[in-house]
Amino acid sequence: AKSTAHNMYFVYENKMADNINAHLTLGGGLRKAIEEEQFVLHYQPKIRLPDESVVGAEALIRWSHPELGMISPDQFIPLAEESGLIIPLGEWVICRACRQLQEWREAGYRPIKLSVNLSSRQFMQADLVDMVQRILEETGVDPKYFELELTESMLMADAQQSIEKLHGFRKLGLTLSIDDFGTGYSSLAYLKKFPIQTLKIDRSFIHDLGLDCDNDAIVKATVAMANSLNLKVIAEGVENRTQVDILNSYKCQEVQGYLFSKPLNSVDFALYMDIHGFY
Ligand code: C2E
Ligand code: CA
Ligand code: CA
Ligand code: CA
After folding, report:
1. What does the buried/exposed string (b/e) look like for 18-50 if buried means 16 or more CB atoms within 10 Å of the residue's CB?
2. What is the pLDDT of residues 154-180, one digit of tens each?
3. Which among 147, 162, 167, 238 could bridge 255 via Cys, Cβ 3.0 to 4.6 Å?
């Protein structure tokens, strides 16, 4: 028994060492990766209900690592946050997303709304609104086709300052979305103090749709309340038809998830638009 415990300890220690190594390797490579632009954005379609046409997309970053291949944001965004590299990286994301919007436009695609995720450290950046304004101007993107996805916890860190910042964004003409809604502690009533336009219901609630009455009741009430507050509601993580049928019956306006498409590179997204981008 003693040797088993010892071995387990060993395995555990090695795993920790692996994690630490991965941490250091990725962290050290991150600065270089930014300089060498080893990042790509993928785009996941947002689908309008009930007609199921593409009305938007969410930009999701990937690190195209020369040795390790595609690395998901969950593995390096936290590192970028810790090191402060999220500031240049976040700017790159906004810039790339705006350029992409213009490229699709020039290629003749009907305009869609593109959203970008912000991280908390990025949101605290003092000149964030100015930076976004500059990029919108430089790229010529009509701000009504640009959306920022924020989380409740980001807003709650300093509510008063957040409200001011959000008003700054609203003056630019873009829209603001609350991501992962339902995972924080704030009520919709409280959130209405913030000038937001869209509510994105977290995929944990969508996953259980049709499987758990209490969960269904929560989603139904959230959609109804959002609708009565004139907020657009989108459900993320939609993976099957049952979920779509239920969301339709609740009058949820938009859905996003693997049922329709996984996040696609810009070329594949354009092909997707060719097929599904009807009015
Ligand atoms: P998120 O903003 O909640 O993004 C949704 C995540 O769910 C994405 O993972 C997406 O690929 C995944 N997803 C989409 N549809 C489905 C589905 O039907 N089922 C399931 N199980 N998952 C689905 P991804 O791309 O790995 O991104 C993970 C997180 O990384 C994002 O969560 C976001 O918080 C962060 N992130 C991604 N790109 C950026 C970025 O440019 N900047 C910042 N700050 N964070 C980013
Ligand atoms: Ca998001
Ligand atoms: Ca989300
Ligand atoms: Ca999330």
Report:
1. eeeeeeeebbebbeebbeeebbebbbbbbbebe
2. 999 999 999 999 999 999 999 999 999
3. 238
Phi/psi of residue 142, nearest 5 degrees: -70, 115
Question: What ipTM describes this predicted complex?
Answer: 0.98
The response to whether residue 243 sits with its C-beta less than 6 Å from ligand 1 reads no
Q: How far is the CA of 60 from the centre of ligand 1 (A)?
A: 6
SS3 176: strand
Which atom of ligand 1 is nearest to 258's Cα? 18
- CB distance 60 to ligand 1 below 6 Å: yes
CA distance 199 to 219: 12
Which ligand ends up closest to the CA of 181?
3
Overall pTM surpassing 0.90 (yes/no): yes
Most confident of the ranges 1-15, 22-36, 215-229: 215-229
Confidence of residue 277 (pLDDT cuts 50, 70, 90): confident
Q: Is 258 in the pocket of ligand 1 (CB under 6 A)?
A: yes
Q: What is the residue with the minimal CA distance to atom 41 of ligand 1?
A: 61
Please give the residue that has the higher pLDDT: either 23 or 91.
91
Q: Is the CB of 81 under 6 A from ligand 1?
A: no
64 Cβ inside 6 Å of ligand 1: no
Phi-psi region of 69 (alpha: psi -120 to 50; beta: other; left: phi over 0): left
